[in-house]
Amino acid sequence: MPPTEIYLCKPGQAMKEGQLVHADIADREDAKSDAERRLATNPGLAKIAYYHVKEDGTFRMIHSQTNSNVKVPAKATAAAVPPRRVQAKAKPKPKPKGIWAKFRHWLNT
Question: Would residue 24 count as lying in a domain?
Answer without folding.
Answer: yes
